[in-house]
């Protein structure tokens, strides 16, 4: 028989398993093609709550959920095979209650805790009831104690379980109250590359709740460690850290904190190397006066954004357009540089683009540049 996917993995609009889950500003997750069609049809309300949305709603990639869906597909059998012998495990499969007891017991060995975490990870991916039982049983404190274990495998499994728990809206504030942020930030600083990537994704998941954005940003070194990963990390950890920074910086006070940590020059360096998520973060930071002033001090910043306009994905192009629009509205110098870089000509070619957001953003930037052409 076909495997049954958790309802959390299904798009509320299409009712199909999500391949590119994104978080709407209302806090609900949809598959990107489905919610994009809804928005392109002119709707400016959340399909679930019917609450109004901004004129240009943000679609935040839900990397945490996408990772869970991918992992579930990898480990879930597509059909049962009763004629084959059951696999042999090094340890017996225990009930959740027994696993939690082993995890929370101070006398349990590291090996026992590691096995309990592995089994609870597998179970919690598929069953919201297991995740609820974990939080209600008081197991979260034991999971958090394992997060910063000197044993790398134990810390990674604990972070993965914490990520599973963070996906439920009811848990996001509760995990913060339990002290999750401090443990996660410590993993950002001293964990392995895999641990840093998972820790970043946890912050992205927790920051879906508005109040958590302020709490995370105010926590000592949270944003500083994300910026540090973007600067010195590699591969997945850089992408996840940039996504977390993007989500957190939708809260205005956190933009200033990111600027104080020297994020702007680092983001431009990474954007020039081809990481478009850095451009997404720049688009958020450009909303603040201080962010625009900082960008104005970066030599060649317009040229870097122009490269994205010419070679980037649809999302990258849109973010580059928005960033340039912010810069050109508030800086004569940026307008002149944009003129020299041929931005107006590029925008004119984009006003007929098939992507509605790109068309709107390009049209807005054309108006900004035409209104300031005397400055060139």
UniProtKB/TrEMBL annotation:
<comment type="pathway">
    <text>Protein modification; protein ubiquitination.</text>
</comment>
<feature type="compositionally biased region" description="Low complexity">
    <location>
        <begin position="99"/>
        <end position="111"/>
    </location>
</feature>
<dbReference type="InterPro" id="IPR003613">
    <property type="entry name" value="Ubox_domain"/>
</dbReference>
<dbReference type="Pfam" id="PF04564">
    <property type="entry name" value="U-box"/>
</dbReference>
<protein>
    <recommendedName>
        <fullName>RING-type E3 ubiquitin transferase</fullName>
        <ecNumber>2.3.2.27</ecNumber>
    </recommendedName>
</protein>
<dbReference type="InterPro" id="IPR013083">
    <property type="entry name" value="Znf_RING/FYVE/PHD"/>
</dbReference>
<feature type="region of interest" description="Disordered">
    <location>
        <begin position="79"/>
        <end position="111"/>
    </location>
</feature>
<dbReference type="GO" id="GO:0016567">
    <property type="term" value="P:protein ubiquitination"/>
</dbReference>
<dbReference type="GO" id="GO:0061630">
    <property type="term" value="F:ubiquitin protein ligase activity"/>
</dbReference>
<keyword id="KW-0808">Transferase</keyword>
<feature type="domain" description="U-box">
    <location>
        <begin position="4"/>
        <end position="79"/>
    </location>
</feature>
<dbReference type="Pfam" id="PF25598">
    <property type="entry name" value="ARM_PUB"/>
</dbReference>
<dbReference type="InterPro" id="IPR058678">
    <property type="entry name" value="ARM_PUB"/>
</dbReference>
<dbReference type="InterPro" id="IPR045210">
    <property type="entry name" value="RING-Ubox_PUB"/>
</dbReference>
<keyword id="KW-0833">Ubl conjugation pathway</keyword>
<feature type="compositionally biased region" description="Polar residues">
    <location>
        <begin position="79"/>
        <end position="89"/>
    </location>
</feature>
<dbReference type="InterPro" id="IPR011989">
    <property type="entry name" value="ARM-like"/>
</dbReference>
<dbReference type="InterPro" id="IPR016024">
    <property type="entry name" value="ARM-type_fold"/>
</dbReference>
């Amino acid at each position: 028989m076909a495997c049954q996917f958790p309802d959390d993995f299904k798009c509320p609009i299409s009712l199909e398993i999500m391949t590119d889950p994104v978080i709407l500003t209302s806090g609900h997750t949809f598959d990107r093609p489905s919610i994009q069609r809804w928005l392109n049809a002119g709707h400016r309300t959340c399909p679930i709550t019917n609450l109004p949305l901004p004129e240009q709603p943000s679609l935040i990639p839900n990397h945490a959920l996408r990772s869970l869906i991918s992992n579930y597909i990898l480990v879930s059998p597509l059909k049962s095979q009763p004629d084959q012998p059951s696999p042999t495990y090094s340890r017996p499969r225990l009930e959740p209650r027994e696993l939690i007891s082993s995890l929370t017991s101070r006398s349990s060995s590291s090996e026992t805790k590691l096995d309990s975490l592995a089994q609870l990870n597998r179970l919690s991916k598929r069953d919201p009831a297991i995740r609820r039982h974990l939080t209600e049983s008081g197991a979260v404190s034991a999971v958090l104690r394992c997060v910063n274990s000197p044993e790398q495998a134990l810390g990674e499994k604990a972070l993965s379980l914490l990520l599973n728990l963070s996906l439920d809206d009811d848990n996001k504030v509760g995990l913060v109250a339990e002290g999750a942020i401090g443990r996660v930030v410590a993993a950002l600083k001293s964990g392995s590359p895999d641990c840093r990537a998972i820790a970043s994704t946890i912050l992205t998941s927790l920051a879906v709740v508005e109040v958590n954005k302020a709490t995370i940003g105010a926590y000592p070194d949270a944003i500083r460690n994300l910026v540090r990963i973007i600067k010195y990390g590699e591969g997945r950890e850089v992408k996840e850290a940039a996504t977390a920074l993007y989500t957190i910086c939708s809260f205005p006070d956190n933009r200033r904190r990111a600027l104080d940590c020297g994020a702007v020059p680092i983001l431009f360096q990474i954007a020039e190397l081809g990481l478009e998520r850095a451009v997404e973060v720049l688009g958020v930071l450009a909303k603040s006066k201080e962010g625009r002033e900082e960008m104005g001090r970066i030599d060649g910043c317009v040229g870097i954004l122009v490269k994205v306009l010419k070679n980037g994905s649809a999302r990258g192009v849109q973010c580059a357009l928005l960033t340039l629009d912010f810069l050109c509205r508030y800086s004569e110098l940026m307008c002149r540089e944009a003129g020299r870089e041929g931005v107006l000509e590029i925008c004119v070619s984009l006003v007929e683009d098939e992507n509605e957001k790109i068309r709107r953003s390009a049209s807005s930037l054309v108006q900004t540049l035409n209104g300031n052409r005397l400055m060139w």
